Amino acid sequence: MSTRERRFRSDESDRVLRALFQTHSQDLKSSIAIAAVGGYGRGELSPGSDLDILILHEGSLSENQLREFVNALLFPIWDGAAAATQIPRSVDYSVRTKKETREAAKADLKVAMGLLDMRYICGDEDLVSDAAAEARKSWRKGARKRAGELQESLRIRHERTGDLAYLLEPDLKEARGGLRDITALRAIATSGLVEVSLDRISKAESLLQDIREALHTQSGRGKDKLLFQEQDKVAAHLNYIDADALMGDVAQSARDVDYLMALTWRAINKEKVRQISALDLPLQRLRQEGISNPWSRQRREDFLTLIGAGSAIVHIWEELDQEGDIAAWLPEWSSVRSLPQRNALHRHTVDRHMVETAVHSAALIRRVHRPDLLLVAALFHDIGKGGPDDHSQRGALLIEPLAQRMGFSAEEIETLQILIAHHLLLSSTATRRDLDDPATVASVLAVIPDLQTLELLHALSIADGEATGSAAWSDWKASLVNDLVRRTRAAMSGSILAKQPELDAQQRAFAEVGALRVDVLPRENGFAIEIISPDKPGLLSVVAGVLNLSRLDVRSARTKTHGASAVMQWIVQPDPHAPAPTAEKLHKDIDAALQGKIDLEKRIYERIKSRAVVPAIPVPPPEVEAFLDASSEATVFEVRSHDQPALLFYIGGAITRCRVDIGSAIVTTLGAEAIDTLYVREIGGGALSKERAEEVAQSLVTALR
């Protein structure tokens, strides 16, 4: 994959068109010519590219003559009969006079930009040279007006396609920072409005073209969207170590292009870099002052001012990064620069995610006693990613020398290490453990030494979750983390919390009746469903199965027992084409399933079989882990799996077949990943033995294969 191959493909196309033109133009008594435009005009033909050509004529030929000529010229290419197999079969052509070409360019920005790359192939060369000169002259003359039109078209396209640097499955051509933007930059350079340093992105352009060519070759299609299933093949084709390395280069190239685009529009619009006045002096000192080891107190204060600036930091940090300042200040940053996160939870590369976390932490500095430690922990909480080891523990090691250079004390560094090593502790514990179990708070107390560290970790958890996105952070998750922090704070201070009732008075009353009850309440993006039922082995599986057949996607669930009844609270999202759930219908179906009147397994199997698709994203196998000491009354199982239809139905069925009981369950779906925590006990009560726990774990693994 190289510029040479793309040029060869263009040259071969020229040769074929010349031969066909020579054969079929001899009877025409009028000047006519063929010109390459757009990517073909630049000699950038990938295997799936279109042949963009303009057929120019004087205007004396009839429509019938032109039609016959075009068909004779292009049919051998469409039919694949042309001698050279290297040339594309897809042709995007237009037939115009010079006047029609001029009018089309005025009416259509895309046409006008394509004409800037016009290149003579064959026929009347004067026709092409005149049209090309006129296109460039017109473009320069109307440059100011056309610039506004171009900027608006870019904005609309970027909103539609997203950022090439941060998308999991990016469009190499259309996304922000992609090849279409490079074409726009080239057009701006041609306009003469401002100087555009195209040499800054020559490497990025070549790389994106190589990747696009490899994608066309590997997929056998002229598509520019780099899908998950193609990324490993494209990476191997281009001799990358893996797809992450490939996507890292894609991200960095896109950032280079987007940064040059930002500089260009700033120059066109005569904008100065707009910074909050409070940042002007700190930034100036940071960029001009020599870097000592450790940093001077003033330098550290200036750096903290920068990273505490909220949303203003995002674009400033990108400029500092692009200009090489960040690498000079923080050599560790290079290991995560443009590092992709190929999962459905994260919206950004690792480095951009950490900057976004700093943005969100800046809004929380009034909640903590040490805002400086919060900001630094936020900016570097994922610095350990990119290595083979656990990124949290690796990050805790990396922060020590970094924080020493910044001038923090040994005690402060120890706090930073705890925050980074355990930045996932509160959110994972709150969503995967029973908060009423004393062992849950004890597990947090074993790690967090004091109230100050707890408040810092709480703020960091919020900032990290908000920066990750709604798939990983919600009001529900925030409330669970708040509850865990409240309980931990009380335990640290020796306070005796009034025991929070597991169920409210109404729930207890209905549970004591011992009858099936279903309530459905609409909520944002779905429904909250509360089910109270006489408890029995397999109840969780039955209810999950009914919800699946009702075309309801379980996003989270919590179950508790009260006496002889189970109280279940589900958050579900309906299939877009399914009717809204009703309490009456669910009550009827659950009751029938509990009585054995519905063969859930058969019906779920048939539904899954009819809808089965191969996931586009490569998914690892499910994992099951048993925690023998996580609860004083039960054995805790954590099931991690790619979310799939009826997942909870199969998990509950596996538990039932092992003749054990689920005391409570916490179900969490994060994007495309499901994490289900089950508190399992023997039928007569009590935690499982090690041997029984291994049996249940194996049953779960088998059920999910």
Automatic annotation (TrEMBL):
What InterPro entries is this protein classified in?
ACT-like_dom_sf (IPR045865), ACT_dom (IPR002912), HD/PDEase_dom (IPR003607), HD_domain (IPR006674), NT_sf (IPR043519), PII_UdlTrfase/GS_AdlTrfase (IPR013546), Polymerase_NTP_transf_dom (IPR002934), UTase/UR (IPR010043)
The record ties this protein, via CDD domains, to: ACT_UUR-ACR-like (cd04873), HDc (cd00077), NT_GlnE_GlnD_like (cd05401)
Name any one Pfam family assigned in the record: HD
Q: Which UniProt keywords apply?
A: Hydrolase, Magnesium, Multifunctional enzyme, Nucleotidyltransferase, Repeat, Transferase
Which Gene Ontology molecular function entries are recorded, alphabetically? [protein-PII] uridylyltransferase activity; hydrolase activity
- Domain HD per the UniProt entry, residue ranges: 350-454
Asked if the record carries the keyword Repeat, the reply is: yes
Domain ACT, residue spans = 528-610, 636-705
Protein name stated in the entry: Unannotated protein
